[in-house]
Structures are given as structure tokens and as C-alpha cells.
Design goal:
single chain, mainly alpha, Four Helix Bundle (Hemerythrin (Met), subunit A), 2 domains, 4 strands, flat
Length: 339
């Protein structure tokens, strides 16, 4: 491989990692928007109160702004500068992320000659970012319909998953094997299934929380958990909200057990400095943070920023498990230890 080709590949991977980080940051900011109730901080899209730069004070808005910018026939809430700029910054980060993904596609052009899948998956991620922007406009025009918010979140996870697979596929990892373990692949398959189940149940819990927030108000956060357990908002799909909440809360312990099992297997199978063992430890730390933040939400009245942390950590766990699975199953070069 020539020096220019090596430089091209390094540039693609480094910029791809930056793009992945920006998508995760966008998920985090999106969680802040949701947990702080800032989703309607800008009642129109793509502008904000009809301007490209939102106002900083209600005096900058027309007297009838509530009527003029009403959504689905309903007047909007009183202007709140914090919520408006929180939502606006979220949109700006979305635009910046789209620009990053466009450059990722550009830097992936050389792969058309050696691995077309890398280029076309990068391009698909770019297309999905455009789709995500359209979904974002529908979230606003639907007055934050719960199912639209869920789709918005799931598309973001699909985008980051595509990017993780694409960047990982573009390189070959070398992992030194100390002891063979034929159950490693099965363990990761189980963990990916558990991840999918937990993400689905988590989105249902979030929808229930959104409904409760609209029904009882932000000032009643300390009673949200009890309201779910009492099924005060009716049923969510075919499973009662209380059962889904209890399932989501308890399922995290099963998650922890399988993650500990995975790390133990990695410790026996690979060297301590291997990428798989290190990422296994990262998973364990993230699971611990996720369980702790869930406990805080459960017992301390759903603090806004902990709610954002819980969502963000969940997305990191899913992304990390996907990366481990790809490395384990794909073009990894295994080297047998001489010890």
C-alpha cells in the first residue's frame, strides 16, 4: 500500500471517529432538549419564530406570537429563552453533524476501488441524516407526538450504528488470543439481543414519562414513578406501563450479569491490552453508570440532567456492544499467544 493510500485511510478513519462522536453528542443534547421540556422552544422549522437566529427576549416577538406560531391549532406556551436556545443549539449541532457526515462520505471515495461497501454505507448514513432532519420537522409540527420522538431517536441510533460498522470495517484489528473460547460469539449475540430488548422497553418507558409530564406537569416529577406504577395514564400498547417499567428496571440486572460474563471471557481469552478486553471493561463501566442513573431517576424524582445522562449512556452501551460484535465477527486477525 502506498503512502498516499495509507494517509487517505487514516484521514477517513479519524474523521469517521469524529463524526461518530458528534452523533453521540447530538443524542446527548437531544436528551437535554427532551428532559428540560425544550422540544417546542422553537415552534417552527427550520427557522425559529420565523427567524434564522432566535430571539433572546420576549420583547423581540410580536404581541400575538402565541397565536401566530401555534401548532396543530393550539397556542404555544410562554416564551422561554432557555428552552428556545436549547432547541436551537440542538438544531445547529444537527447541521454540523450532517456536514461531518458529508465529509466522511467524501473521504470514503477512495474505498470505491477496494471496498465499495464502506463508501455506500457512508453515503447511506448521509441520506439518513437528511431523513432525520425531515423527521425533526415532523416532530415539531406534530407538537412532539411521542411516537415521532421515538422514531427520531431510533433513526439516530441507526445512523451511529452504520457509522460504527463502516469505520470498523475499514480496518483490520490484531487481537492476541491466549485461550480459545468457542462461546464468545454466542455471548455477544445474546448481549446484542438483550440490548435490542432494553432499547425497545426504554423507549416505551420514555413515552410513558412524556405522557405523565404533559398530564401532571414538570413540578410533579417526584410522583412520576408512582404514577407509572399505578397505571394512571392507562395502557401503553399491549403491555401495561407499570409492567414495562418494572421489566425495564429489572432487566438491567440481567444485562449486568451477561456483561460481567463477557468481560471474564475476554480476560481469559485475550491479552489485557487488546481492544476487545478494553472495550469489555468500558461496557462494564457504562452499565454501572446506567444502573446508578436509573436508580437516581427511580428514587430522587427524575432529575432532568440525570434523565439525559441515562439516555446518553444507553446509546453509548448499544454503540459499544455493536463495535465489540463487529470486531469479534469480522476481519479481525487473531494471533496465538506464545506464552
Amino acid at each position: 500500500m502506498s503512502e498516499n493510500e495509507q494517509l487517505s485511510e487514516r484521514r477517513f478513519r479519524r474523521f469517521g471517529i469524529l463524526t461518530i462522536a458528534s452523533v453521540f453528542f447530538l443524542i446527548f443534547v437531544g436528551g437535554l432538549v427532551r428532559s428540560t421540556g425544550s422540544g417546542m422552544g422553537c415552534p417552527d422549522w427550520p427557522k425559529c419564530f420565523g427567524e434564522w437566529a432566535p430571539p433572546t427576549d420576549v420583547s423581540e416577538l410580536p404581541a400575538d406570537y402565541k397565536e401566530r406560531f401555534k401548532v396543530e391549532g393550539h397556542e404555544i406556551a410562554d416564551f422561554d429563552v432557555f428552552k428556545t436556545w436549547t432547541e436551537y443549539i440542538n438544531r445547529l449541532i444537527g447541521v454540523l453533524t450532517g456536514f461531518f457526515i458529508f465529509l466522511t462520505v467524501f473521504f470514503a471515495i477512495p474505498y470505491l476501488k477496494k471496498d465499495k461497501t464502506v463508501f455506500w454505507l457512508s453515503f447511506l448514513a448521509f441520506v439518513l441524516v437528511g431523513f432525520q432532519g425531515w423527521i425533526g420537522s415532523k416532530v415539531v409540527s406534530s407538537n412532539l407526538a411521542h411516537w415521532m420522538v421515538t422514531i427520531h431517536m431510533l433513526v439516530a441510533l441507526v445512523i451511529v450504528g452504520l457509522l460504527i460498522y463502516t469505520i470498523t470495517r475499514s480496518q483490520v484489528f490484531e487481537v492476541t488470543v491466549q485461550n480459545g473460547d468457542t462461546t464468545l460469539h454466542g455471548t455477544m449475540i445474546v448481549l446484542m439481543i438483550l440490548t435490542t430488548i432494553q432499547v425497545i422497553s426504554g423507549t416505551q418507558v420514555r413515552e410513558a414519562i412524556d405522557t405523565i409530564a404533559m398530564k401532571s406537569g414538570e413540578t410533579n416529577r417526584s410522583n412520576w414513578v408512582q404514577m407509572i406504577l399505578n397505571d394512571e395514564i392507562g395502557e401503553s400498547g399491549v403491555i401495561r406501563d407499570s409492567l414495562n417499567f418494572l421489566f425495564h428496571r429489572s432487566f438491567s440486572l440481567l444485562f449486568l450479569v451477561f456483561t460481567v460474563l463477557m468481560v471474564r471471557k475476554f480476560r481469559k481469552s485475550f491479552e489485557r491490552n487488546s481492544i476487545l478486553y478494553k472495550m469489555g471493561l468500558v461496557s462494564l463501566i457504562l452499565i454501572a453508570v446506567q444502573i446508578l442513573s436509573g436508580k437516581v431517576l427511580d428514587t430522587m424524582g427524575f432529575p432532568r440532567y440525570v434523565q439525559s445522562l441515562h439516555l446518553f449512556t444507553g446509546s453509548l452501551i448499544a454503540g459499544n456492544y455493536l463495535f465489540i460484535t463487529i470486531v469479534l465477527f469480522s476481519k479481525t486477525r487473531y494471533i496465538t499467544s506464545k506464552n
